[in-house]
Specification:
173 residues; alpha/beta; Rossmann fold; 5-stranded parallel beta sheet; 14% strand; globular
Length: 173
C-alpha cells in the first residue's frame, strides 16, 4: 500500500484531549513514529522540543488554533481534526491560519491516506487540495449545498491555488 510506504518512519505528533482518539490514531498510523499529547501545554512543549514531519491537532479540547500557530512557527505541517468544531467558519479559519487539511473525526479512519497525500504532494510540488475534493460531498451534506456562498472570494482563491484543474491532472498523469 502506497500510504504505508510513504508514511513509514515519519514522526507524527497527535494532540487531542480524548484518550480513545489518541489510541485510535496511533493504531491507524502504526507505520509512523507517533507521539501523543492530551492538552495544550504538553502539545506545545512537544512541538517546541521535538522534530516532527506533521502534527494532527484537535480544534476544541486542546486549543488547536494556538497549537497551529506554534506548528507554523516550527514549520510543521498541521492537519486539523474535529468533531464538535465541524463548521464552514472553522474550515475557513483552519485554512487561513495555515492548516494543510481539515478532517472530520468521522473520517479519521482514512487519516493515513490524507497524510500520505500531503507528503506526496509536497514531494512532487503538486497542489495539496485533493483532501478537500474528497471531502466536499461530506461538507455539502453537513453544511448544505450552498455553504461556500458565504466566503465566495476565499473559496475561489482556494480552488485556484489548491485544487488541480483537468489540464493539470492530465499533465500529472
Amino acid at each position: 500500500m502506497e500510504s504505508t510506504r510513504v508514511l513509514k518512519g515519519k514522526r507524527i505528533l497527535v494532540v487531542d484531549d480524548e484518550p480513545d482518539i489518541l489510541d485510535t490514531i496511533t493504531d491507524l498510523l502504526d507505520m509512523c513514529l507517533v507521539e501523543t499529547a492530551k492538552d495544550f501545554k504538553t502539545g506545545e512543549k512537544s512541538l517546541r522540543r521535538g522534530v516532527y514531519d506533521a502534527v494532527i491537532l484537535d480544534i476544541m479540547g486542546v486549543d488547536g488554533y494556538r497549537l497551529l500557530k506554534v506548528a507554523n512557527e516550527m514549520s510543521v505541517p498541521a492537519i486539523m481534526l474535529t468533531a464538535h468544531a465541524l463548521t464552514p467558519d472553522n474550515l475557513v479559519k483552519s485554512i487561513k491560519e495555515g492548516a494543510y487539511a481539515y478532517l472530520p473525526k468521522d473520517k479519521m479512519v482514512d487519516i493515513a491516506e490524507y497524510l500520505a497525500d500531503l507528503f506526496i504532494s509536497h514531494q512532487k510540488g503538486k497542489k495539496t487540495g485533493e483532501w478537500f475534493a474528497r471531502l466536499t460531498p461530506l461538507f455539502d451534506e453537513k453544511f448544505g449545498p450552498n455553504w461556500r456562498e458565504k466566503d465566495k472570494a476565499f473559496w475561489r482563491a482556494f480552488d485556484r491555488k489548491m485544487i488541480p484543474r483537468k489540464e493539470e491532472l492530465r499533465r500529472i498523469l
